């Protein structure tokens, strides 16, 4: 593409902003009930009482962050209100210390923190709340990313017993349903005073969401046909009902058409965009796995490249790997990069984590095949997976 074309006005995009992953529309579709529930749990703070802690969970792209931020904006727009709010993204602030630091930065930016430990920061927060009996709402988004989660929840809920006036209420948000299992029962019961589950979106809902966004961001309504929008929505519904994913496809389709200097988005660009978005998702999923999960998946992908050991007759012939052979390969790869392999107990945990992420399928062999063993099958093309992991693990690509 030459400079002239780059400078030429887009025939597709009128407002690129609305396609950014950070954009929150003023109107959130299909989430009235959820928004109401968030408002209800926070409302007491507006009347000077401590609200109940709220725990929100649901798959990525189900609208959790958008809905909570929507309510935060509502509260902030009320004049003369005595409520203080911190929104903390725990993907970035992923420990108790960092969260406390972030809270202090939000509300006491002049406080010099150098050399202070978590206990000092905690004391500071307590004194700040007691100053004028503040009601403090702390939103902890992406809670699954916090390393010392129990410490964090314990510390933040303890505030209420340590202050003489004011109150803290927590809104925790997590993507993984399994999140609960990782919590200490004590943290669990304090965090779960109220619970709110976000379901994935259906195809029709995704259609309405991307239709709305197209109307806002594309030049004319006829840039993309309804049937193309439905096609995108169906692909995103199939991939798990993730609104972010549907918007990513829509945006990518627009960009592809723009590159070709077209003034419409056709089915062809939509199909291509779906492919690209799907690859991005797999890449993201794999590259953000913790190290040993990467090593296990890498072993699976390498063994799968040479074909499975065990052939099972289903509709066609499906090949599976034995859990034991995967573990041996994992051990030797891990040792080859001078790291300590984890025990088999951990390894089994890793397998179920990989399965939960949809990266592998496993099943118990039942008696007969080598006693009783787990059989494993990779879900994405093994070559693609091993290529990504090679770069991730060794820092080079072949
Ligand atoms: P989560 O926090 O559950 O992963 P988000 O709130 O970040 O999901 O939503 C992902 C994207 O999808 C947001 O950028 C937002 O633009 C869009 N979105 C989600 N839910 C809705 C909705 N109900 N109406 C309109 N857009 C939505
Ligand atoms: Mg979110």
What shape does the CA trace take? Answer: globular
Distance between the termini: 30 Å
Helix content: 40-55%
Oligomer: single chain
**What is the string of helix and strand elements?**
HHEHEHHEHEHEHHHHHEEHHEEH
Q: What is the strand arrangement across the widest sheet?
A: 2-3-4-1-5
**Count of DSSP strands:** 9
Residue runs with pLDDT of under 50 for 5 or more positions: none
**Which percent band covers the strand fraction?**
5-15%
Q: Calculate the mean pLDDT score and round it.
A: 90
Describe this structure in words.
- With 398 residues, this protein is an alpha/beta fold.
- 51% of the residues lie in helices and 13% in strands.
- The chain has helices spanning 3-7, 32-46, 64-76, 96-107, 118-131, 149-162, 185-191, 203-217, 226-238, 243-259, 267-287, 291-305, 323-336, 344-356, 382-394; strands spanning 54-58, 83-89, 135-141, 167-174, 194-198, 310-313, 317-322, 360-364, 374-378.
- The strands form two sheets. Strands 2-3-4-1-5 form a five-stranded parallel beta sheet, sandwiched between helices. Strands 6-7-9-8 form a four-stranded antiparallel beta sheet.
- Helix 6 links the parallel strand 3 and strand 4.
- Helix 8 (203-217) packs across helix 10 (243-259) and helix 12 packs across helix 13.
- The mean pLDDT is 90.
- The structure holds adenosine-5'-diphosphate and magnesium ion.
- Adenosine-5'-diphosphate binds at residues 21, 23, 25, 28-31, 58, 60-66, 209, 243-244, 247.
């Amino acid at each position: 593409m030459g400079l002239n074309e780059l400078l030429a006005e887009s025939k597709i995009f009128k407002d690129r902003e609305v396609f950014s992953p950070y954009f929150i529309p003023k109107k959130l579709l299909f989430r009235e009930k959820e928004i109401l529930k968030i408002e209800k749990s926070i409302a007491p703070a507006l009347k000077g009482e401590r609200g109940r802690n709220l725990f929100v969970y649901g798959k990525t792209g189900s609208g959790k962050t958008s809905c909570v931020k929507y309510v935060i904006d509502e509260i902030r727009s009320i004049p003369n209100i005595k409520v203080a709010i911190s929104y903390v993204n725990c993907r970035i602030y992923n420990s108790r210390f960092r969260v406390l630091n972030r809270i202090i930065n939000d509300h006491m930016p002049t406080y010099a923190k150098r050399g202070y430990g978590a206990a000092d920061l905690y004391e500071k927060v307590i004194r700040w709340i007691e100053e004028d009996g503040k009601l403090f709402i702390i939103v902890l988004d992406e809670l699954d990313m916090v390393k010392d989660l129990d410490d964090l929840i314990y510390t933040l809920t303890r505030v209420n017993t340590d202050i003489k006036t004011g109150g803290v209420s927590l809104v925790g948000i997590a993507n993984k349903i399994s999140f609960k299992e990782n919590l200490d029962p004590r943290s669990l019961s304090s965090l779960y005073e109220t619970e709110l589950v976000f379901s994935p979106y259906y195809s029709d809902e995704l259609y309405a969401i991307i239709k709305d966004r197209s109307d806002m961001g594309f030049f004319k309504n006829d840039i993309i046909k309804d049937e193309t929008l439905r096609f995108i929505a169906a692909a995103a519904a199939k991939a798990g009902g993730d609104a972010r994913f549907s918007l990513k496809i829509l945006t990518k389709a627009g960009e592809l058409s723009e590159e070709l200097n077209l003034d419409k988005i056709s089915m062809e660009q939509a199909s291509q965009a779906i492919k690209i978005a799907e690859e991005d998702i797999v890449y993201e999923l794999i590259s953000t796995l913790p190290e040993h999960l990467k090593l296990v998946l890498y072993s699976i992908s390498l063994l799968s490249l040479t074909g499975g050991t065990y052939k099972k007759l289903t509709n066609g012939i499906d090949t599976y790997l034995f859990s034991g052979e995967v573990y041996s390969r994992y051990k030797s790869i891990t040792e080859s990069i001078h790291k300590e392999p984890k025990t088999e107990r951990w390894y089994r945990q890793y397998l179920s984590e990989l399965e939960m992420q949809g990266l592998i399928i496993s099943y118990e062999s039942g008696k007969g095949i080598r006693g009783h063993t787990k059989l494993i099958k990779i879900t994405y093309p093994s070559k693609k997976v091993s290529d990504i992991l090679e770069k991730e693990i060794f820092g080079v690509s072949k």
